[in-house]
Amino acid sequence: MSASLPPFPKPQEPTDEPVLLELSAGADEPCLRADAARNRARLLEAATRLVAEHGAAGVTMEAVAAAASVGKGTVFRRFGDRTGLLMALLDHSAQQLQAALLSGPPPLGPGAPPAERLGAFGRAVLRQSVDHLELQLAAQPEPTRRHSFPPQRFLSGHVTLLVRQAVPDADAPLLAQALMGYLDPALVHYLTKDCGMPLERLESGWNDLVERLIRTELP
Amino acid sequence: MSASLPPFPKPQEPTDEPVLLELSAGADEPCLRADAARNRARLLEAATRLVAEHGAAGVTMEAVAAAASVGKGTVFRRFGDRTGLLMALLDHSAQQLQAALLSGPPPLGPGAPPAERLGAFGRAVLRQSVDHLELQLAAQPEPTRRHSFPPQRFLSGHVTLLVRQAVPDADAPLLAQALMGYLDPALVHYLTKDCGMPLERLESGWNDLVERLIRTELP
Predict the structure, then answer these.
(1) How many domains does chain B have?
(2) Among the three residues A43, A60, A80, which one is the final residue of a domain in this structure?
(3) Do B208 and A175 touch (CB under 8 A)?
(4) How far apart are the first and last CA of chain A?
(5) Where's DNA bound on this chain (chains A, B) (predicted)?
């Protein structure tokens, strides 16, 4: 399963500016009609509920059609096949997170101190990972592209900005990468599935990590 | 290219005890004759020099034979094919690191304060990664096995022990995973190749990360 996002120019330096995700739907279908867009959103919401209830294995074209009360043909026309549906689902959730980071309410969005925003960021990414773990693992690019992959660069760019605000004298891109490593879906998989750790422990570990790295105490 | 190490039982918790690597050569060939063992070591040393000088692409069966002044047939008999040679090379370097951590001189080996040992550990792993980057990336297991892979578990177990000694009240396995994330070969590849950062900057970043995480100053 390969990712659906377009290739991105190689950075010379870890980006300080968040890389805006290009929306697959928008890029492919600039003139998506309003009712088609509503239909697509409804299908993705149904698929999101199915993932939350049954994991990625529960997301079939048939199940999504039934959950959204539409015909199966509609789902096939919209997404092509199950891989297309799953990639659209990952894009959808990445875009929701991006919108929340850029313009949502604080502390995830702008307006809170950087330490609090970092805390909220990690908790949001961990929750999203736990919900979409199988999809994220399946969509993970090969090792040489894992960190230059645009969605990853958007998130690490966001963390770099917050780290720089919190500790202006640090090597922000490197501390940001250390933070991002803790949120790697493969690690979340290992800790929750192989080691049986609850999400709450990973969240506490994230808060502790942020507090130590930026030498502060979170509220 | 798949790794040559045997499967390992699933941990229920990130291990606190380092997992000893099983030596591929020892496991396959318990009665390797002394001259054959010397021969093997000589070939691996020749291959290591070739990697340092020309990268993994420079390691061919022919080049290793020439560098060790033996016939090409000897190299084929010893390692089977190029993949076998490359995996033996990775094992060899992992075993050298393990020996240095368990019984080498401080600060990498026992006898130095845990903070200094962590500092030396990261610098050693980063140097090894830069030398063997292509091999390590090619040998990296799929995401769901990346963190339970025995060589990875040995290293994260070692770091967990040192973190626990340095900060007894912390969630040591989670802080250890945060540290290990910084040493991920895929990240080292991104930072050195895509972003053009020198190894020295990554080493400074490691020292800074250790100092912040265990709230101390390295000498």
Answers:
(1) 2
(2) A80
(3) yes
(4) 41
(5) 60-79
Query: Domain with A157 in it: what CATH number?
Result: 1.10.357.10
A116 confidence band (pLDDT: 50, 70, 90): very high
Tell me: do A157 and A57 sit in the same domain: no
Is residue B109 domain-shared with residue B214, that is, in the same domain? yes
* B 11-30 near A (Cβ less than 8 A): 11-14
Helices and strands (H and E) in chain B: how many: 11, 0
Phi and psi for B10 in degrees, rounded to 5?
A: -65, 130
Structure tokens at B208: 């800074």
Residue B101 contacts by C-beta under 8 Å, 6 or more apart in sequence? Answer: B18, B108, B109, B121, B158
A62 to chain B, any CB pair closer than 8 A? The answer is no
Confidence of residue A17 (pLDDT cuts 50, 70, 90): low
Tell me whether A54 touches chain B (CB under 8 Å). Answer: no
**Cβ-based contacts of B210 with chain A (< 8 Å):** none
Partner-chain contact B146 A209, CB within 8 Å: no
- Give the pLDDT confidence of B158-210 residue by residue, as tens digits: 999 999 999 999 999 999 999 999 999 999 999 999 999 999 999 999 999 99
CB spacing of A140 vs B140 below 8 angstroms: no
Contacts of A181 in chain B (CB under 8 A): 177-178, 180-182, 184, 187
